[in-house]
Automatic annotation (TrEMBL):
The keyword tRNA-binding does not apply. It catalyses: beta-D-glucose 1-phosphate = beta-D-glucose 6-phosphate. It comes from Candidatus Thermochlorobacter aerophilus. InterPro entries: B-phosphoglucomutase_hydrolase, Beta-PGM-like, HAD-like_sf, HAD-SF_hydro_IA, HAD_sf, PGP-like_dom2. Belongs to the HAD-like hydrolase superfamily. CbbY/CbbZ/Gph/YieH family. GO terms for molecular function: beta-phosphoglucomutase activity; hydrolase activity; metal ion binding. Its EC number is 5.4.2.6. The lineage of its organism: Bacteria, Pseudomonadati, Chlorobiota, Chlorobiia, Chlorobiales. Its cofactor is Mg(2+). This is Beta-phosphoglucomutase. Keywords: Carbohydrate metabolism, Hydrolase, Isomerase, Magnesium, Metal-binding, Phosphoprotein. It comes from the Bacteria. The keyword Isomerase applies.
Length: 223
């Protein structure tokens, strides 16, 4: 037994989708009469759930039920916009196949909802690679809280220090670091040079093309 496991974030790791999410948000806010600066949006909303993003910009203009409906509209728009662009991050499919061959257990841990998870996993036909799939509806606290990563490790039957997390964004990296896991930074949201300096990141790469599951076997925790 290899005694390690891989846990993947979804948006920005499995797929390079963050720009499309931002476009969907900006389009929704435009319909509501708000003009949001993209840079401001990016830095103010990192790690927030959809409802939290809406509450941040809309205040108390809408009820919780109305915010949930608006959030669902945004996610539907995202899927419409991204459907023609849907493809795995470079090198990911080969990486997943190699990890499966080595019998390394894998999990998905995302802040996304079920509809988006189904859209990505089934659209790319990769669901069978993951022994655990957790999303926003499976935790009480989103990233940077470590809850989703700790639950994923437990689902794989592993200790946190036995897990390697693939993340692109700072809230997710912080969550994995707080969970006591080692992190591979995927440079879709931030550049490689920046990610190498972030606490907890042991490897930073543009994508999965130059990553191999075998390289992490030599870094496995002693058990």
């Amino acid at each position: 037994m290899n005694h390690i496991g891989f846990i993947f974030d979804m948006d920005g790791v499995i797929v390079d989708s963050m720009r499309t999410h931002e476009k969907a948000w900006l389009a929704l806010f435009a319909d509501l009469g708000l003009k949001i600066d993209l840079k401001e949006f990016h830095y103010q909303t990192a790690g927030m759930t959809g409802t939290e993003v809406l509450r941040h910009f809309l205040g108390n203009r809408f009820s919780d039920a109305e915010l949930a409906q608006l959030s669902a509209q945004k996610e539907f728009l995202y899927r419409v916009l991204f459907r023609k662009k849907l493809k795995a991050t470079k090198g990911l499919l080969a990486f997943l196949k190699a990890a499966e061959t080595l019998k390394i257990p894998m999990a998905l841990a995302t802040g996304g909802g079920k509809a988006n998870i189904d859209f990505i996993l089934d659209g790319l036909s990769i669901r069978t690679y993951f022994q655990s799939v957790l999303g926003a509806g499976d935790v009480k606290h989103g990233k940077p809280n470590p809850e989703i990563y700790l639950k994923s490790a437990d689902a794989l039957g592993l200790l946190p220090e036995q897990c390697f997390v693939f993340e692109d964004a700072l809230p997710g990296i912080e969550a994995a670091h707080r969970a006591g896991m080692r992190i591979i930074g995927i440079a879709t949201t931030h550049c490689v040079a920046f990610l190498r300096k972030v606490p907890g990141v042991i490897v930073a790469a543009k994508n999965f093309e130059r990553l191999s599951p075998k390289q992490f076997l030599s870094l496995r925790a002693e058990t």
